[in-house]
Amino acid sequence: MGSKFTAALKCFLKSPVYSARLMLGSSESRVVESIKARCPEVEVESLGYYAGIFMAILFVILCVMMYLFFYALKVITMHREILFPP
Fold first, then answer.
1. In angstroms, what CA-CA distances link 8 with 25, 28, 37?
2. In this structure, are residues 31 and 22 in contact, taking their beta carbons and an 8 Å threshold?
3. 48-84: per-residue pLDDT in tens?
4. pLDDT digit string (tens) for 14-55?
5. Cα–Cα distance between 21 and 48 in angstroms, integer?
6. What is the pTM of this model?
7. How many CB atoms lie within 10 A of CB 16?
């Protein structure tokens, strides 16, 4: 699965427009042929699946980072007098 995932990720980064069109359900022959020409090692049927997994993982990582940022901001604002004496 790792090699399929990295190959799909590389293909998604090489041609994001065609990959997005394919993920949104476009089955035009031009889109499929373009992806097959640019990324012959990727199965066109599974490209949307692996790109979706990548975006879900990225979303979770960004949510965790934002939670940590706002938690740190809350701690700083609650203990402002201790951290930054006047």
1. 17, 19, 14
2. yes
3. 888 888 889 999 999 999 999 999 999 988 888 887 7
4. 888 888 888 877 777 888 888 889 888 888 888 888 888 888
5. 9
6. 0.69
7. 12
What residue spans define the domains of the chain?
A: 2-83
Phi and psi at residue 18, to the nearest 5°: -70, -35
Category of 73 on φ-ψ map: left (φ > 0), alpha (ψ -120 to 50) or beta? alpha
| Spatial distance between the Cα atoms of 48 and 55, rounded to a whole number of angstroms | 10
Contact 16, 61 (CB under 8 A): no
Task: Name the amino acid, one letter, at 33.
Answer: E
Question: Six-digit token pair at 5?
Answer: 């995932």
